[in-house]
Amino acid sequence: QMTQSPSTVSASVGDRVTITCRASQSVAHSLSWYQRSPGKAPRLLISQASNLQSGVPSRFSGSGFGTEFTLTISDLQPEDFATYFCLQSYIFSITFGGGTMVDIK
Amino acid sequence: QLVLQESGPGLVKPSETLSLKCSVSGDSFNGHFWSWIRQAPGKGPEWVGYVSTAGGATGRTQLNSILGGRGSITMDMSRGQFSLQLLSVTAADAALYYCARHAAGTNHSPLDTWGQGIWVTVAS
Questions:
Q1: Is B4 in contact with A41 (Cβ distance < 8 A)?
Q2: Residue A59 clears pLDDT 90, i.e. is over it
Q3: Dmax (CA) of chain B
Q4: What residues contact residue B121 under an 8 Å CB cut-off, 6+ apart?
Q5: A41 inside 8 A of chain B by CB
Q6: Are the beta carbons of A42 and B46 separated by less than 8 Å?
Q7: pLDDT band at B105, cuts 50/70/90?
Q8: For A33, which residue in chain B has the nearest alpha carbon?
């Protein structure tokens, strides 16, 4: 079970946003973060809890190990207003967080 | 550049079979695990199942137990496609269905490339 919070966050351009995923048991560092924008395929942002994927802006960062993980977006940009979700791939079957919608305040 | 594209009917009648196909292009179909994921309105994403084209695990499939044995996944190596069949659908199966590739040659890895998704409605 992955519990993601908050479900919605209202923010402004330039803000810092933090999203949390908590696992019901340890998933080590097998936690990844995704961005989904309307009409687009979900995009892998971060793998192994903190590894930024190629081409992903450095304002995105991830941290955590075991049962608690965070995704931080610093200096929020207009293209960052989207839905974010986490995925644990350590325990079979893989499971997702419920998602966090980042919308414009 | 790897591209995944889902296809299939957007409307399925209750109790009938849902069949979706994922076409893979731009990179090798071999050597990976490929999954189906769905997201119902108002809910988080849910893993549906995978098929493997990775070495000794080629052809291996696994479905989420929440499907109650109604699901199957097949693949066509020559066409670079894999398909999901879900029997006896109900309204609970209505969702946005995605296909995706696991980053490494294991199902215990992130999903590095996704299709855009296909909406499936269950209604008579």
A1: yes
A2: yes
A3: 43
A4: B10, B11, B12, B94
A5: yes
A6: no
A7: confident
A8: B110
